[in-house]
């Protein structure tokens, strides 16, 4: 009951007629972290970091269990909710860190992995393939073997659900099961149009019993933070930074009532720097938190719908820009292919020209030279008419090097 009262307080204070969504976004983009990030351990493990400018603070980093101190680093942080519930916010594994990733899943007994990116986006790898390929039942990652259990399920449009079993190959009797939720259409620096898919996955993950859910995108800050941020306000909803932002936000609002959404982002960034990366994700986080509060019993009003309209307008423009960019990229590829085809055609034409016989005049020169050499050798009398013809040909012929004179058959015609 107290949470619902505080949620109503928040909506009454935030959703006022004077609310300017675009100003709110400008304020979000102007946010600067007031916390000095200390990430000394990360400096020793640059090869395990996908992006050099995404920090993994020592104070909240996940320390890999049963590993020596010089090999216990993974680019992941604990995100602690107001009610004590914890998520792991992580970067998408690199090829070099897939074993570390499964070690973390296995030792922390995580019951869910929420993947908010695709393996490749815009021809750029966003995450190493850390699960078996579609046509394979199992796959090894260092000492761990991951086996697919059952069939892939489309939880809803754009979200795939897999179940995997992981174990150490030398200890096959000790097995751990984890469910994998894959958002295949939530692209980098963007967010879904509606909250439906996020809220459904959040609810499913929160109902699972066991270790902390692992939420990751590519860097582990934008889409991940948005998800977790939405989970904060209610005890039974879920998150990673966009994802975790929802859970964090709903729990914080449920406890304190009036709260500036910008403060939610500041607090989350103390745990995972740069959490909730883009203005799209920030607005989407607010929409998801609001939808959760409406499900709780907060009345929906026109101001709530206005901010949704602004968000949809922004996303439509972003989609248009993305489509135009892809169109230019495809056109550039077609031009590149056409250019290569032209080059091949020119090469073929050039090879035909290079294969033509010596010009007749050079052949005549070669014959006359051979005749002259033969006459000198035999000591035969000279034919004056033939000598005159030879002189005329030599005058009009291109100048030949001494080597060309003696081996004319090795050279192509001069153009």
Overall tally of domains: 2
CATH architecture call of the largest domain: Alpha-Beta Complex
Share of helix, binned: 40-55%
Q: What would you call the shape?
A: globular
Helix tally?
A: 13
Low-confidence stretches: 229-241, 358-363, 410-415
Q: Helix/strand/pairing class, anyone?
A: alpha+beta
The CATH topology annotation of the largest domain reads as: Protein-Tyrosine Phosphatase, Chain A
Radius of gyration: 35 Å
The profile of the biggest β sheet is: 10 strands, mixed
Task: Indicate the CATH class of the largest domain.
Answer: Alpha Beta
CATH superfamily of the largest domain: Protein tyrosine phosphatase superfamily
Distance between the ends = 95 Å
Proportion of residues in β-strands: 15-25%
Order of helices and strands: HHHEEEHEEEEEEEEHEHEEHHHHHHH
Give an overview in words.
With 415 residues, this protein is an alpha+beta fold. It folds into two domains: 2-322, Protein-Tyrosine Phosphatase, Chain A, CATH 3.90.190; 360-410, no CATH class. Helix content is 45%, strand content 16%. The chain contains 13 helices and 14 strands. It has helices at 2-14, 21-29, 40-43, 98-108, 196-207, 222-229, 245-256, 261-271, 279-296, 302-354, 360-378, 384-396, 402-406; strands at residues 61-63, 73-80, 86-90, 112-115, 120-121, 124-125, 138-141, 144-148, 153-156, 159-168, 175-183, 214-216, 230-231, 241-244. The radius of gyration is 35 Å and the shape is globular.
């Amino acid at each position: 009951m107290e949470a619902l009262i505080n949620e109503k307080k928040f909506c009454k204070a935030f959703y006022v007629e004077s609310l300017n969504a675009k100003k709110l976004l400008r304020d979000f983009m102007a946010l600067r972290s007031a916390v000095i990030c200390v990430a000394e351990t990360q400096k020793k493990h640059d090869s395990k970091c996908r992006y050099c400018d995404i920090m993994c603070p020592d104070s909240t980093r996940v320390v890999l269990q049963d590993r020596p101190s010089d090999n216990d680093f993974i680019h992941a942080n604990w995100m602690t909710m107001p009610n004590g519930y914890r998520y792991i916010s992580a970067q998408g594994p690199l090829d070099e860190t897939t074993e570390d990733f499964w070690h973390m899943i296995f030792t922390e007994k995580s019951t869910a992995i929420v993947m908010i990116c695709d393996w490749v986006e815009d021809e750029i790898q966003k995450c190493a393939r850390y699960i078996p390929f579609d046509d394979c039942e199992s796959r090894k990652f260092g000492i761990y073997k991951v086996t697919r259990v059952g069939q892939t399920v489309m939880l809803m449009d754009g979200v795939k659900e897999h179940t995997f079993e992981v174990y150490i190959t030398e200890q096959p009797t000790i097995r751990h099961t984890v469910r994998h939720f894959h958002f295949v259409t939530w692209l980098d620096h963007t967010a879904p149009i509606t909250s439906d898919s996020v809220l459904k996955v959040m609810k499913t993950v929160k109902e699972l019993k066991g270790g902390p859910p692992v939420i990751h995108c590519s860097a582990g800050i934008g889409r991940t933070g948005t998800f977790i941020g939405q989970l904060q306000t209610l005890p039974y909803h879920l998150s990673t930074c966009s994802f975790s932002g929802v859970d964090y936000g709903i729990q914080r609002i449920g406890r304190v009532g009036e709260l500036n959404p910008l403060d939610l982002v500041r607090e989350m960034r103390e745990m995972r720097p740069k959490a909730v990366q883009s203005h799209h994700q920030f607005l989407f986080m607010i929409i998801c938190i609001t939808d959760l509060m409406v499900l709780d019993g907060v009345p929906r009003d026109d101001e709530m719908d206005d901010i949704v309209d602004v968000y949809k307008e922004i996303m439509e423009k972003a989609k248009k820009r993305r489509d135009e960019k892809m169109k230019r990229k495809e056109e550039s590829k077609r031009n590149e292919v056409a250019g290569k085809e032209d080059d091949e055609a020119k090469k073929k034409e050039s090879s035909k020209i290079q294969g033509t016989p010596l010009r007749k005049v050079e052949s005549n020169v070669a014959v006359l030279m051979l005749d002259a050499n033969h006459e000198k050798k035999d000591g035969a009398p000279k034919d004056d008419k033939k000598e005159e013809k030879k002189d005329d040909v030599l005058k009009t012929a291109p100048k030949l090097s001494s080597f060309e004179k003696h081996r004319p058959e090795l050279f192509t015609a001069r153009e």
